[in-house]
Design a protein that fits this description.
With 167 residues, this protein is an alpha/beta fold. It is 20% helix and 38% strand. The strands form 3 sheets. It has a 5-stranded mixed β-sheet, with helices on one face. A 5-stranded mixed β-sheet has the order 4-5-8-10-9, with helices on one face. A two-stranded antiparallel ribbon has the order 6-7.
C-alpha cells in the first residue's frame, strides 16, 4: 500500500502546512508549475517525488523534469501532465495520451481548480488537486491525498489550507 500526496501549482511556494502532509505520505506527485528548483529539491529530499514541468517552469526545471510522466504505482497505471483540459474537452495531446496509454489515473493541474471526476468514456479517474501555492485566483490552497493498495484506489481526501486561519 502506498500513501500518495498530489500537489500542483506551488508557484515557488512551500510551507509547513504543505510539509505536514508530506510527512505522512510515501510518495508525492506534483502536476507542474513548481516555480522554483528549491521546491522540487525540498520535496525530493523528504519523499519519493514524481513531477512534471508546467507552463511557468523555467529552463532549469524543464531540464530536470519531463512534460509527461507515465508509471505504475502498485498495479495502477498513472499519467501526470500539467495541462490536460477536462473531460470530455481534453487537449489533443491528452486525448492521444489517454487513447495510447490507457491510464487508470490522470493527474493534471494548471487551472487552480480542484476537481475529481471519473471519465467513463476513457475509464480514467481525473484528478486536479487545485493549487497548493499562494499565487493565483484561488481562495484556498488545496491538495489531495489517497492510498493505492494493489489495484484499488482508496481513502481519497481533499486537503484545504485556508490562509486566513492560523494552522
Amino acid at each position: 500500500m502506498k500513501k500518495i500526496l498530489i500537489l500542483s501549482d506551488t508557484h515557488g511556494y512551500i510551507d509547513k502546512r504543505i510539509l505536514r502532509h508530506v510527512k505522512f505520505s510515501d510518495e508525492i506527485w506534483h502536476a507542474g508549475d513548481i516555480g522554483k528548483l528549491e521546491v522540487l529539491e525540498k520535496l525530493k529530499k523528504l519523499k519519493k517525488t514524481k513531477a512534471v514541468y508546467g507552463n511557468i517552469d523555467d529552463h532549469i526545471l524543464r531540464s530536470e523534469l519531463k512534460e509527461i510522466e507515465i508509471f505504475y504505482c502498485e498495479k495502477v497505471k498513472i499519467c501526470i501532465i500539467h495541462i490536460a483540459g477536462k473531460p470530455p474537452y481534453y487537449n489533443k495531446k491528452t486525448k492521444d495520451l489517454l487513447k495510447k496509454e490507457r491510464p487508470k489515473i490522470l493527474v493534471h493541474g494548471h487551472s487552480h481548480i480542484l476537481k475529481l471526476e471519473y471519465d467513463k468514456n476513457n475509464e480514467v479517474l481525473c484528478i486536479n488537486p487545485g493549487a497548493a501555492g499562494k499565487y493565483g485566483f484561488h481562495k484556498k490552497r488545496t491538495m489531495i491525498k489517497f492510498q493505492i493498495d494493489g489495484d484499488k484506489i482508496e481513502n481519497m481526501n481533499i486537503i484545504e489550507i485556508d490562509d486566513k486561519k492560523k494552522q
